[in-house]
Amino acid sequence: MTVSLPRRLVAELLGACLLAATVIGSGILAAQLAAGNDGVALLGNTLATAAILYVLVATLGPVSGAHFNPAVTLVMLLRGEMRPTDAALYIPFQIAGCILGAILAHAMFDLPLIQQGMTDRAGASRMLAEGAATFALVFAILGGVRHRPNDIPAIVALVITAGYWWTSSTSFANPAITIARAFTDSFAGIRMADVPGFIAGQLAGAILAWLAGSWLFGNKAA
What we know:
The chain is an all-alpha fold. Helix content is 72%, strand content 0%.
């Protein structure tokens, strides 16, 4: 089934919005309920993010591919599975959707709609962690597309679940989410000054995953 470009763009916008709203909103609620225990707050944030990822990829994947992530869109472009004009439109819709999701999360908790992220996530180790997290995500997607296409929703959700706990950056693994999280001064936030380093790590990880995945799995879906 061929889906029109406007429908695909709306799917990316809506999916990115709901994803960001869940990441940020669950972080706000988890921090409120955890009474200062960051481990408990991170666990709540992790479970909510994994759950919404599974649902969004399962329901919107047949419409737009369920990227919600410029790094994934870049790799699909490099694989020849997207036209450059489509990819150039996907990315701003993903970013806009994530920012709208941050606003929605703030509105639900009666907070200022636009905030300045203040959480310090600087350092080469966190840039490396974002590269590793994004590599793992994209590499798993490419392997899933080749060998287990029906399992892609679970694969994405499980990679991010693991990434929250094995990386020092808690696995943003998504430039659009990273930008949106710079507009929240909450548990999920990040300083705007740290955003470029995160995005550089994410794009590097995505490109390395494309190279490794193309060699191991081939450049086309089964």
